[in-house]
Structure formats: structure tokens, C-alpha cells
Amino acid sequence: MGGGSTAAIYSICNMYISIYQLPTKHQPFPFPFINSSHLHMPSVAPRTVSPKVDLKVYTSAVELLHDVLPALEGNEANFNVIYPHALKCRAAEQSGQPPKPGQVWIVYFTCDPEPRVQFILSCTTTETGKYPIFITTTRPTNTLSVEFIHQPMSLLVKELYRVVPVPRVYSIFAPDAIAQHFATLWTELTGVGHITQPYYAAKLTFCTKMTFRYRQATMVPGVTYELRLAVPSDIEEIAKLCHGFASESEPFVLDDAGALKEATLLVRQNQVWVHRIRQQGEDRSSIASIVAFTRNSDTLATITKVYTNPDYRRRGCAERLVRRVCKHLFMTKDKVALYVAHTNPAASKVYHRVGFAGLGDDGVAVEGVDAWTEIGFDRDVIDLGHW
């Protein structure tokens, strides 16, 4: 953490202002409402909210990373939903662009005595749409009791309410305990109900060079495989698979135009590989599977999309391509992360065979392999984004 920033936060941490009570939907909120047009401002000055606790709101990625970079670098997998996007925003700012509108980060520090990052909330927008609210932590998830997280979540909820419009908060994606507590508090504050059935419930897992399992690709007589980085001529076929992936990811579906846009971005940014198959006697090959990795930082890559054409399933295509992509990523990264849905045991087995941690049948807990949940809010009230 930069010396000047640390000193500023440290001095504030030694001040005292008592914690204000979380308002309910029946009580007026004690701060003026700020809509998205107000987010073109420099970072809001830190405000001490209790002894040894501090919140700071950022709208500049340069300022955010100046204050929290060591915490993110030490927890890249856990912050895979926040850190890579912040790096992109910082690069844009450092090239001379103003901070991008619609980007807000709220950081919860404790001071004991030096400031330490405990939780980071992000409310950000990408080329493909508005992200959910992401919250993650530097703490092990087994320490996140309701008693421990209640104060941090209460303060983050209030601060988020203060700086973004209520309809912008269409879902929360975070480790289970955080997501559930945030959703309850947000509903209490705003009156916007949350949906009982999660949009997504998954396990965050990772593979390293040490856990990666090398295996010779199985060849089938009469079938030719081609596994490679996608090129522009693949875009139309990739778009069809992006459309298929989204159709199984309600409510984040894509129309044909949206799928084509996503496929074009993936290819242009060199973030998707394809597994092509050509059967003997066929004139041309077809894309059987795709693997995309769109959230990447210095030492971590995150696989964000694995999808196999239904016509080519149960042929080992996904495992073959995931293994090949991991091998490629390990040329420049130390770790590859991904989420696998609790309801997709077949995918868990594939990733386990490749070398992803915490997915075996033994049920042994692995540090850093955690359950995450995405909880949506009343769709009659919110403005749905896409990710």
C-alpha cells in the first residue's frame, strides 16, 4: 500500500465517530441520494464509521489499486471477479482517459493499528454489460460467521445505497455467507425483495502447475481434432455456442446479436480457444467446444465459459480443451481458477481429472475452494445486466 495513502487512512482510523443505525425501508435515509450521473467524480473521501473501522468509496481504479493492490495480489483467485476489471480500468486511466463512468468500489478497512483490507464491494460495467454486485474478502471463508460479517455488510449496504440507484443492484455474487447476508440487509433497507432460488450456486476452484494432470490426448480413428486459439473465421460458430451457453444461464440470455457481439469480443481479445472436429469424409470441421478466459491478472487466469455443442457431448471434448487451455495459460500464469455449479457433477469430474482442487469424491476441504452464490433481486424493480 502506498505510503501517503496508508498514512491518510491510518490517521482517519484513529478518529472516532459512532456507528449510525441501519435505516429501514420505513425510515428516511440520512444521506442524499446519488444517481449514476454523479459517479464521474474523484474518489469520495474516507469516512470513519466506528473505532478501528473505515470505509472508502472509489470511482477511480488508479486510486483504488494505489490503496489495495497488495491485498488483491495476495488473493488473486478470490478476487477474480474484481481485480482483473480494476486492472483494465486502471490501464485506461493511465493512458489518459478519465475514470470510466459506472465504476464504483467500496472498501471496508480495519485498523489494527495499520489499515487492512477486509472486504471489497464492486459495482462495475464492462463492454458486455453491467456486472452484478461482487463482494469478496481477504479472510478465510470459514471465519465468516453471521456475527462477524453483520457490521461490515450493514455498512457496505448503506454505502452502496448512498452512491448507486437501487435498480442498478440486480444481483449479488459472493461467498455464500456474504451473499445471503447482503441480500437480507438490502431487502430490509430498500424493500426490494430477493429471489429465493439462486441464479447460480457454485464452487470456486483452482488448478496450479503442481496440481495440473498432464495426459496424452486420446485419438479416435477417422476423427481429426484441432485445438487452438480462435481466429476471426470462427466467430459465427462461436456465437452459436455463446448463445447456447447463455440459454442455459437464465436470466442472462442472449439474442443472436448479443451472442455475435460477445463472440467477436472474445476473438478480438484472444480470450477463447476452440476444439474443432472433422469426421472422415466430411469436407470441413466443426467447433465442438469452446473455452473462454476473460478475467485475467498478473499470475491468474479465470476460465469463464466452457461449452460443448450438444451434438458432440460425451466425447471428451471439454476435458481435452480445458486441459489444453490450462497448459497454454501456465506458460504465463501460476494458477487457473473457475467456478463449477453444484448442479453440474459431470463438469466437476472433468475439472477434477484436469487437476482442479477440492472436487474429489473424498470431500476433503481445500483452502481457497469455496462455495459462492448469486442471488437476484425482484426483476420488476431492477435493471438486469449481463455477465
TrEMBL record:
<feature type="domain" description="N-acetyltransferase">
    <location>
        <begin position="225"/>
        <end position="378"/>
    </location>
</feature>
<dbReference type="InterPro" id="IPR016181">
    <property type="entry name" value="Acyl_CoA_acyltransferase"/>
</dbReference>
<dbReference type="InterPro" id="IPR000182">
    <property type="entry name" value="GNAT_dom"/>
</dbReference>
<dbReference type="InterPro" id="IPR013653">
    <property type="entry name" value="GCN5-like_dom"/>
</dbReference>
<dbReference type="Pfam" id="PF08445">
    <property type="entry name" value="FR47"/>
</dbReference>
<dbReference type="GO" id="GO:0016747">
    <property type="term" value="F:acyltransferase activity, transferring groups other than amino-acyl groups"/>
</dbReference>
<protein>
    <recommendedName>
        <fullName>N-acetyltransferase domain-containing protein</fullName>
    </recommendedName>
</protein>
